[in-house]
Write a structure and sequence with these properties.
It is a single chain. With about 375 residues, the chain is an alpha/beta fold. About 35% of the residues lie in helices and about 15% in strands. The protein is built from twelve helices and 14 strands. Strand 4 and strand 5 form a beta hairpin. Helix 7 packs parallel to helix 10. About 40% of the residues are buried. The chain binds S-adenosyl-L-homocysteine.
């Protein structure tokens, strides 16, 4: 091959990039033990690993030169062997109600979205767990993007770290809550989501309280059982939307293979193990689930385990196939549930003007 040839150059660049990425590993793929081993093999003191780990997972360092308690020699050693693949907030949109939506570019160029939701008392980060989603819920905009891949633990962590910075910068207050209600189904990316949560909640990481973190799921029964067995400390929200199998299956195909009965058994197990109330997310749609029969079915489902219900406002995503139910229908649900001692809240949407509300995340502007 003639190296001066203009056609050869891109090939050579490509090859040298490949060699480089092969040699320089993503440092955040290493556990603390692996980092320790690295330093020992390179003749450095083992405690360096702990220092680096804290820079990565506690102080969210994006560059080895930020690690100022390491000597230049150690920093160079790290640069020779590793890279930090931090996500980039590519586009930030602010809603009239203060909500911020981030379009986040991953190192391979794919994009996900995450949202900062401010209220008087809280600042909540809503994060994505997958690029796209495989679940095909008929009312959700993310379902229209096919699932491209799972997010890595560091990519989930970075969304939180970025929102933590925005929270201080724009609101002068710390981030208080985290919800896995962005793109994707967290329980179909189980290992990476659990690893990210560990980094977000551990004292060696962001040290956020587990009780302020909520994983929201369509309700994959066997994964709920697995979480319960692992003794997790965060909250569980289940996107229920109907407590009648035929109705739920018609809007959420997952219900065909994961029925309400299986879900209920898993939730009973969850409660037995964790003693944590479950939150049901539920949209009331016109002519779909807005009658008393549906509300009574929900009430019956609520008897399985201690729970609360969030009636979520519907965010239209398209041609009007689904429509928000009337105020009267919502009141009917509220009255029935509250009368039977079930805490029920109506959750108004935030960030609708920038397509940042539940079910609207669809990389529209990218
Ligand atoms: N896959 C997870 C998390 C993502 S969706 C889950 O299903 O829970 C977060 C919440 O938004 C879910 O309760 C989902 O059912 C709801 N949602 C999806 N599309 C919506 C829409 N268009 N309007 C209102 N809520 C929606």
């Amino acid at each position: 091959m003639f190296v001066g040839d203009y056609q050869a150059r891109p090939v050579l660049n490509f090859l040298s990039n490949m060699v480089e990425t092969e040699v320089r590993r993503d440092i955040r793929k290493l556990s603390l033990d692996e980092l320790t081993e690295f330093f020992v093999t390179h003749g450095e003191r083992p405690f360096r690993a702990k220092q680096v780990y804290e820079w990565l997972w506690k102080k969210s360092a994006k560059d080895f030169d930020e690690m100022t308690n390491l000597s230049l020699v150690v920093r160079e050693l790290l640069k020779d062997h590793f890279v930090i693949n931090f996500i980039r907030v590519d586009q930030m949109q602010r809603s009239a109600d203060g909500t911020i939506k981030n379009a986040v570019k991953l190192h391979d160029g794919l994009v996900v979205e995450s949202v900062l939701i401010p209220t008087e008392k809280r600042i909540t980060a809503c994060v994505s767990s997958q690029v796209g989603c495989s679940l095909a819920c008929r009312f959700c905009a993310t379902a229209r993007l096919k699932r491209m891949r799972n997010l890595n633990p560091d990519e989930i962590y970075d969304q939180v770290a970025a929102i933590q910075q925005q929270s201080e910068l724009f609101f002068g207050r710390p981030l208080t809550n985290i919800v896995f209600m962005g793109m994707g189904e967290p329980l179909l990316n189980y290992a990476n989501v659990m690893s990210a949560i560990e980094k977000i909640t551990s004292p060696q990481g962001l040290n956020m309280a587990s009780k302020r973190l909520t994983v929201s799921t369509v309700g994959i029964a066997k994964m709920i059982v697995k979480m319960a067995d692992e003794g997790v400390k965060f909250n569980l929200a289940v996107s229920l939307h109907s407590a009648l199998n035929h109705v739920r299956s018609s809007i959420m195909p997952i219900n065909d293979t994961n029925s309400l009965e299986e879900l209920a058994e898993a939730l009973k197990y969850w409660y037995k193990k964790t003693r944590k109330k479950v939150t049901y997310e539920y949209v009331v749609w016109k002519d779909l689930n807005d009658t008393r029969e549906h509300a009574e079915a929900l009430l019956n489902f609520c008897k399985h385990v201690p729970c609360k219900v969030n009636l979520i406002e519907y965010n239209p995503i398209d041609d009007g196939e689904f429509q928000q139910a009337s105020e009267a229908a919502l009141d009917m649900y509220m009255d029935l549930l509250e009368r039977h001692g079930i805490t029920t809240r109506i959750r108004k949407s935030r960030g609708k003007d920038i397509d940042a509300a539940c079910g609207q995340l669809a990389n529209k502007n990218n």
